[in-house]
From TrEMBL:
Keyword set includes Phosphoprotein: no
Name used for this protein in its record: Glycerol-3-phosphate dehydrogenase [NAD(P)+]
Positions bound to substrate: K109, R272, N273
Annotated source species: Mongoliibacter ruber
Gene3D superfamilies: N-(1-d-carboxylethyl)-l-norvaline Dehydrogenase, domain 2, NAD(P)-binding Rossmann-like Domain
Pathway: Membrane lipid metabolism; glycerophospholipid metabolism
Keywords recorded for this protein, A-Z: Cytoplasm, Lipid biosynthesis, Lipid metabolism, Membrane, NAD, NADP, Nucleotide-binding, Oxidoreductase, Phospholipid biosynthesis, Phospholipid metabolism, Transmembrane, Transmembrane helix
Gene Ontology cellular-component annotations: cytosol
Record flagged with keyword Lipid biosynthesis: yes
A GO biological-process term: phospholipid biosynthetic process
């Protein structure tokens, strides 16, 4: 498409130019001008003068800004691509400039804790569904935006940036959000499916990270493909149980954003969650791993939240509970594995 033919259209906004935000901004820029928000002035400067992020070339139709008001005025559709730990803070900075005519689609695979002011997870220990927010719920809570969507699926940013074929799911209660996501993102290397169960699709992307950490740990122990197949299938059962308890539907968990992303992240050294598990199994301590990782591994916080949720509801989630002990209580991975091998699972599939 020529730059002339896109000049009259409104730009598309992208908030957060990390790995995933940059990959998605590049896909969007093939069809539309993009305005990208980055919090650091040097990143904005690099985008606008060099057309690079972290030294990697980006599309020339991406304009950097540090100004939420300018971005919201210039764009009707905005993609929020920041980690869950920063999501609430970032959405609050944009909230004064967001109106009901905006469409907001996020790509964040994490959860927010929703506790009374001043309370921490350590103090409450057990939580229920009302203490957990998916990112679409954060957007609805913090802004007047109505048409909210999410983007989830097997979408390793490095593969997308290399132009490898992939597919994603745009989920929203509003069909127009799904259609807009498809119109903006679809190309001959990127297929876009729709789903109306936004919470189920969000939870798919969130919960598979737990199993990806465990899969990396198995690989780090030098275990083979039989063990991985066992983990992925039992992990799927756990994902379905937790996901159902949090309000998602089975149909989403067995789709591209669920099983599709589970398989991808459980098998890829490009996954940060998988890498955390792998390094743990090689004997590194979690704080050391976190200190040397530049990018976010959402699964660590998700394990903390899900462990507290499981305790609050009386459910059992053996992989998550054992992984919690490995991450935060120094349980040896070999011992966690032994425990799981002795766990009295009896029925193969009991969720259909
Ligand atoms: N990298 C990947 O392959 C994929 C990542 N995701 C999800 O996308 C989300 C973002 O991940 P990545 O881009 O990989 O992370 P990243 O660590 O590469 O980048 C995060 C970006 O958010 C920005 N940010 C952090 N705190 C901020 C704040 N307070 N205000 C403004 N900006 C802030 C950082 O400056 C950075 O640009 C995560 O939830 C992740 O699970 C989803 C699919 C694929
Ligand atoms: O979700 C992802 C790919 O779909 C990325 O996984 P990581 O966050 O583990 O890198």
């Amino acid at each position: 498409m020529s730059s002339k033919s896109i000049s009259n259209k409104k730009s598309i906004g992208v908030v957060g130019m990390g790995s995933f935000g940059t990959a998605v901004a590049n896909i969007l820029a093939a069809k539309n001008k993009v305005i990208a928000y980055a919090r650091r002035a040097e990143v904005v400067e690099e985008i606008n003068t060099m057309h690079t992020v972290d030294g990697s070339k980006i599309h020339e139709d991406i304009l950097g800004t540090q100004d939420p008001e300018y971005l919201c005025k210039s764009c009707d559709t905005i993609f929020f691509m920041v980690p869950s730990a920063a999501f609430q803070e970032v959405i609050r900075a944009f909230s004064p400039f967001l109106y009901p005519y905006h469409m907001v689609i996020h790509g964040t695979k994490g959860l927010c804790l929703n506790l009374p002011e001043g309370k921490s997870l350590e103090e409450v220990a057990k939580i229920s569904r009302k203490n957990i927010l998916t990112m679409s719920e954060v957007i609805l809570k913090e802004t007047v935006v109505i048409r909210v969507g999410c983007l989830a699926g097997p979408n390793l940013a490095k593969e997308l940036s290399a132009g490898q074929p992939a597919a994603t799911v745009v989920a929203s209660r509003f069909n127009e959000v799904i259609l807009e996501g498809q119109r903006l993102l679809r190309n001959d290397k990127f297929q876009v499916y729709g789903n109306s169960d936004i919470v189920g699709v969000e939870l798919s992307g969130v919960l598979k990270n737990i199993i990806a950490i465990a899969s990396g740990a198995l690989a780090g122990l030098g275990l083979g493909e039989n063990a991985k197949g066992l983990l992925i299938s039992r992990g799927m059962v756990e994902l379905v149980y937790l996901g159902n308890a949090l309000g998602g539907s089975l149909k989403s968990f067995i789709g591209l954003a669920g099983i599709g992303d589970l398989v991808t992240t459980c098998n890829s050294t490009l996954s940060r969650n998988y890498t955390v598990g792998f390094r743990l199994a090689k004997g590194e301590k979690l704080p050391d791993i976190l200190n040397t990782m530049e990018e976010v591994a959402e699964g660590i916080n998700t394990v903390r939240l899900m462990k507290a949720f499981v305790e609050g509801t009386g459910m059992r989630a053996p992989i998550t509970e054992n992984l919690y002990k490995v991450l935060f209580e120094d349980l040896k991975i070999e011992e966690a594995l032994q425990y799981l091998m002795k766990y009295p699972f009896s029925v193969d599939v009991d969720f259909i």
